[in-house]
Amino acid sequence: MQSTLGEFQETKSEQPFALQNSKLLKVSLDQITIQAKAGAMVAYQGDVAFEHAGSGGLSRMMKKAMSGEGTTLMKMSGTGEVFLADTAQDIHLIFLENDAITVNGANLLAFDSGIEWDIKRVEGVSGMMGGGLYNTALSGTGWVAIVSDGPPVLLNTGEAPTFADPQAAITWSSSVQTGIKTDIKLKNLIGRGSGETVQMSFSGQGWLLVQPSEGRVQAAQAGGGSSGGGLLSQLGG
After folding, report:
1. pLDDT at position 120
2. What does each C-alpha distance from 90 to 1, 77, 98 come to in angstroms?
3. Max CA distance (Å), the chain
4. 54/74 Cα distance (integer angstroms)
5. Rounded CA gap, 128 and 212, in Å?
6. What is the side-by-side strand order in the sheet with 41-45?
7. How many CB atoms lie within 10 A of CB 28?
8. What Å distances lie between residue 48 and 19, 20, 27, 44, 105, CA to CA?
9. What is the pLDDT confidence band of residue 133, given thresholds at 50, 70 and 90?
10. Whole-model pTM?
11. 188, pLDDT greater than 50
C-alpha cells in the first residue's frame, strides 16, 4: 500500500512527556503517574488505568465550587502510553524544577501527579468572582502541559507594566505580581470573557504567556516531537 502517512509516524523520546506534533502529546507512564483533564485522552497503548483524581481535599473542593476555577482531572497510571489533546489546541510543555507557575484552569492539559496544585484568587479581586480571576497554582518538580488557542506570545513582565484579558492570560511565572485593573473606557475595545472592563495586571521580573483568543477557552470549560515544548523550552523555573 502506498500512502503519505509516513510523516505522521509516532515520535520516540526518552522523556515521559513528548510532543507528537504541536497539538498532540504522548506521555509514557512507565516513569510517572499523571493527572490530566478529563476527556483529554484520545488514544492509549499498553496497560493503562484511569481513575477520577478528585479535588485532593475538602479545601480545594470548596474552592472549586466557589470559584468555578479548575477542571475535572483524571489520574492515569500503568505501563503504557497515553495520547492527549484538547480540541486541537496548541500544546506547550514546561518542566518545573522545585518552582511554581500559575495557570488558567481551562488551559491546563496534564501534569506529573507529584506536582502540588491549589486554587488561588488574584490579588485585588475583592468580592468579584468569575473565570480568570481564580487560577490554578502548580508547584514542585515535574512536567506540566498547557494548551493555547493559537500560537501565544511570551511577554517579559519586567520590562513594563503588563495587562491582559483574564481569559487570554494562560500562564505566568511565580515571581510575577498580579492584580486587577478596571477602566470603563476600555469597555468597547478589548476582551469578551472578562466583563470587558476588567483586566489583569502583571508586574515584576518574570514572564506571561498570552493566547490570541478568549472564545475557545469558554468552550473548553464547558466540555470538558520534542521534549522541550517549543516556545517554552528555554524557560527556567
Report:
1. 86
2. 32, 24, 25
3. 64
4. 8
5. 25
6. 17-21, 24-28, 81-84, 41-45
7. 19
8. 19, 19, 11, 8, 25
9. confident
10. 0.81
11. yes
